[in-house]
Amino acid sequence: MSDGAERDYCGEALADAGLEHEPPGEQEVEIKQLAGMSPLDYCLVRKTVAKRLGIRVGELDRLVRDVGKRSTVDDDPEHWGVEPYPAPVDGTKLLDELKATFERYLVLPPHVPEAIALWVIHTWTIDACDISPYLALISPERRCGKTTVLKLLNRLTRRAALASNITPAALFRYIEAKYPTLLIDEFDAALKDNDEMRGILNSGHSREAAFCIRCEGEDNHPKRFSTWAPKALAAIKDIPDTLRDRSIVVPMRRKKKTEPRHRYRDRDSYEFGRFRSQTLRWANDNIGILRDAEPEVPDGLNDRAADNWRPLLAIADRAGGEWPKLARAAALALSGDDATEDTEGAQLLADICRIFAERKSGRLTSVALAAALVEIEGRPWAEWRGGKSLSAHGLARLLKPFRVMPTTIRFGDSTAKGYQLSDFKECFEAYLSQQGECEPSQSNKPDAMGISEGFQGVTPALDVTVPKSTKSNNGGHCYDVTVQKGYAENFVAPRRCDYCGGMERSADPLRRRDWEGKPLLHQRCEEPWLDRRRYCAYCRLGPGINNPVGLWDWNGREVSLHPRCQELWIDRERATEVRSSQ
Q1: Predicted pLDDT at 502
Q2: C-alpha distance from residue 178 to each of 57, 170, 201 (Å)
Q3: What percent of the chain is modeled with pLDDT above 90?
Q4: What does the pLDDT read at residue 377?
Q5: Where are the domains of the chain?
Q6: How many H helices and E strands in the chain?
Q7: Which distant-in-sequence residues (6+ apart) come within 8 Å of 513 by Cβ?
Q8: Percent of the chain's residues with pLDDT above 70
Q9: Angle formed by the axes of helices 26-35 and 39-53, to 10°?
């Protein structure tokens, strides 16, 4: 245990056995020593010790077994015992050093080291928060550094407990007993076919709702268990949408052979201990301010992402320096509307929006819309269920939760079940960040969604002249329409920022800068783009106190390098040139 006196397990075991419990003395010490022996050594002395203590051998066996079990379960790891740093701690310097620590051992995408460093401090200031975002480490394959991140977090976060497997019952009971920072590796295996685990984890995101209720004891008395604790989850490929929505998702990748990093050794160190001590001191000094903080949230975050990032933005604002700017850039890059992956329903709505724009039509039959969805590459509709493509009936089932139903629509001289663009108006506005792709560029008499007044239901209007399409689709089962006027002529792919990869939005436009490479950038990304030269082109680390990053000339081009990395860079470039010439 981190602060209190050592627990007297031997005394508890003696009391359970009905023996008189004297103050800790020879009996207790001897039984603790027996519990720490190897099985062979214990077998050699058990009868002699039992005779000297005046108890049966079986009773001695139970005492030793109970002491061993309790100490194994209840003893806290040594690194949980942390004393606050004796002097005030500079938050900016602390975050800089935490960020550099992760960069020393790992190859991480842009903005990820900043997010992880802020999350580390969040684990020490969680008592000031109403929301605790999960840190989700997601990789496409194994050996991408997820476990190394968790091992570093195990040395840096508050009361860290690293586990490669845990059951739902153990999860909430361990949180209730220990209030740890829970680090779960191999999370995709633990969650397989385990809805109970997912429900418990979902509950732990908000302090107010972070409870589950289970029956406890022989009388099945209902008891409320807390699920409130910081959590980091490592998985391959993905996690369920409900957990992703509650997480700061960190994409991981396998490092290249040309990206050397320091090897992490599985042991505690003075440096890790100093970080824990300094972070505890900083948290103690600032937790009152963080509890009342209301940080400004960037416009590009949805409501849930904004909730996830508020605790981290508050930490960055309190630390000062460049961190308020770095934190907001990381929030937009990792959790912005353009960075977050769509859920199944949002993917469907986005694809339908695009189909209406490309077809330049205000209405489509159910069969035509389903066929168009199946043709989109990279989407799940072609192999929707059991390898079969999405059907019109399957499409109707997917759209039913959005309260969009197929209706009977007239197409020329015939009618068919289908959908009108106006049916999706509220869905597009609520679930899609950009609806402009669905809107017409011109129209005769458009309504808010760009549908001309001539589009009617099954009852024909006198001024409607919509010819049936002669283009065959899906074996001739196409009732699509070709509209002469009123819809966008071409679908224009959105422009993306050359630094963060985010799409252009009206509130966050892109500008082409007259710099090297003519980059297309958000305004918030211009300084990071210029500042990228601060990092060494060989080891990808920033400048150190005695290890600055300077500009070196290599065959007429400038390269940012540490002095110690110059020769290594030259050797690598020459080797590359030799391979290229062969």
Answers
A1: 67
A2: 35, 11, 16
A3: 29
A4: 79
A5: 9-76, 91-254+261-335, 339-495, 510-581
A6: 20, 14
A7: 519, 520, 521, 526, 529
A8: 76
A9: 160
DSSP state, 26?
H
Residue 207 phi/psi, 5-degree rounding, is: -55, -40
| 3-state helix/strand/coil string of 257-288 | CCCCCCCCCCCCCHHHHHHHHHHHHHHHHHHH
Q: How confident is the model at residue 22 (pLDDT cuts 50, 70, 90)?
A: very low
Q: Could you tell me which residue, 24 or 42, shows the higher pLDDT?
A: 42
Question: Per-residue confidence at 131, pLDDT binned at 50, 70, 90?
Answer: very high
Contacts by 98-101 with C-beta closer than 8 Å and gap 24+? 98/156, 98/275, 100/541, 100/542, 100/544, 101/152, 101/156, 101/271, 101/275
For domain 91-254+261-335, the question of CATH label 3.40.50.360 is answered with no
Tell me what pLDDT residue 39 has: 78
CB distance 381 to 374 below 8 Å: yes
CB neighbour list of residue 426: distance below 8 Å, 6 or more residues apart: none
CB atoms inside a 10 Å sphere around CB 274: 12
How far is 252 from 517, CA to CA, in rounded Å?
A: 27
Q: Band of the pLDDT at 469, cuts 50, 70, 90? A: very low
| Nearest to 324, CA basis, from 336, 308, 313, 338 | 313
CA distances from residue 448 to 133, 445, 512, 519 in whole angstroms, order as listed? 37, 10, 32, 35
Separation of alpha carbons 544 and 321, rounded Å: 17
**Contacts for 357 with CB less than 8 Å, ≥ 6 apart:** 437, 438, 439, 487, 488, 491
pLDDT tens figures, 27-67? 777 787 788 777 777 888 888 888 888 888 888 888 887 77
428, 437 contact by CB (below 8 A) = no
Task: Using the structure block, give the residue that is written with the tokens 């669905």.
Answer: 438
Pair 81, 3: CB distance under 8 Å: yes
Could you tell me where the beta strands, DSSP code E, fall in 392-473?
407-411, 414-420
Q: Would you call 181 helix, strand, or coil by DSSP?
A: strand
pLDDT in tens, 343-384: 678 788 888 888 888 888 788 899 989 888 988 877 888 888
- Asked if residues 442 and 452 have their Cβ atoms less than 8 Å apart, the reply is no
